[in-house]
Amino acid sequence: MSDRMLPATSDRRLRVGIIGIGWAGRQHLAAYHELPNVEIAAIAGMETGPLAALGTQYGVSALFQKWEDLIEAADLDAVSIAVPTYLHAPIAIAALERGLHVLTEKPLARNGVEGQRMVDAARDAGRVLDVVFNHRLRGDIQVLGDIIRQGEIGRPYYAKASWMRRRGIPAGGGWFANQDMSGGGPLVDIGVHVLDYSLFVLGEPRVTSVTAVTYGELGRRGIGRTTPPAGGDSPAVFEVEDFAAAFLRLSTGATLVLETSWAAFRDPVDLIDFSVLGTDGGAELKAVGATDTPVADLVVYRDLDGEAADYKPEAEQGTNHAGVVDNFVRVLRTPEEWEDYDGSLALERARVIDACYQSAAQNKEVVLA
Fold first, then answer.
1. Which pLDDT value is given to residue 1?
2. Taking residues 14-38, what's their average pLDDT?
3. Which structural domain range is residue 191 located in?
4. What is the mean pLDDT of residues 111-128?
5. How far apart are CA 298 and CA 111, in angstroms?
6. pLDDT (tens digit per residue) in 288-337
7. Would you call the peptide bond into 107 cis, given omega within 30 degrees of 0 as the criterion?
């Protein structure tokens, strides 16, 4: 195990390694590059051309094709993991066992069993395990969360949220459509974001039970792919759902309904939304265009002296990956916070997703312990 320990100050440069050089990995690279006293010390990726180009762009000479070599050879404090989901657990556990802090892309793992092993490894090592839930850092989500926490709509009792795509099967299918590699379809991919920002806005209530359905009606027919199938896959190679919906009962007595799709016959423009009914008001957030819309349309519905007093709060653009990476680095500089960042929250999300898939498979409600 590494004996490198970060001080409580920012006097020493933090050395990080990036594993994965696709879109997400490049977000991590750009974010770390902007931070003071942070050095991108190593990069790992299978594509030799892009790997060399990124090494030149960021001035990194320690380049590896195998993640194992990066963890073994580089003198690091932390790693960012931005690779297919089936690799999250083995890479994170290996890094944590070497005494490295870990920031991984969502979801935490393919399922809660793998996620628990990751959390156990973080606790055993006394290191940070954090997950990229960047959508809770949207400025509009932050504003709506503040409004609810301040009691402006009273007690929330019913909420509905979604991320819907008409044609949005990622990478033309590829590993995303392989059940063993991904753990599932849009529910575990983008649905986990919807689950996360919804529970965040509602004050982190516990999910007590779920009833869910999943459908794989279009992806198997080659409908909904944004690009040609990756790796020579045919349209038939599609083992996951393309639409999911879930009815969640919460510990507060409230209800949360989730919908998510990669492929559906709906408006061609993607949508991220959240609506809530409370005892003293309500609110609706709609990002038509999804991630292409940095600030959503947000309306709060209230009455004042028996008359409608609806208003539109102002919100700034969120910080996205940069905000996640910045907070990760801040936590690493603050050892007294490490035990609060052991992956537990992401594990709760994983267990809810597991329960949704179980409910859909068994056609019944699943109660969470």
1. 40
2. 97
3. 139-317
4. 98
5. 33
6. 999 999 999 999 999 999 999 999 999 999 999 999 999 999 999 999 99
7. yes
Secondary-structure percent of the chain, ordered helix, strand, coil, rounded to 5: 40, 25, 35
- Entry pTM: 0.95
Selection from 87, 83, 88, 80 nearest residue 35 by Cα: 80
Q: Checking DSSP bridges between strand 78-81 and strand 101-105, what pairing results, if any?
A: parallel
What pLDDT score was predicted for residue 88?
98
**Residue 138: alpha-carbon gap to chain centroid:** 13
Same domain for 253 and 152: yes
User: How many Å apart are CA 291 and CA 289, to the nearest integer?
Assistant: 6
* Alpha carbon 183 to its chain's center: 14
Residue-by-residue DSSP string for 345-369: HHHHHHHHHHHHHHHHHHTS-EE--
- Cα separation, 44 vs 148, whole angstroms: 42
Q: Which two tokens stand for residue 17?
A: 């390694």
Residue 299 sits in the same domain as residue 187 = yes
208-240 pLDDT per residue, tens? 999 999 999 999 999 998 776 555 445 558 999
CB 239 within 8 A of CB 175: no
**What's the CATH number where 82 sits?**
3.40.50.720
Asked if 269 and 297 sit in the same domain, the reply is: yes
List phi, psi (to 5°) of 323.
Answer: -70, -40
- The count of domains in the chain is 2
Helix (H) or strand (E) holding 329: helix 320-332
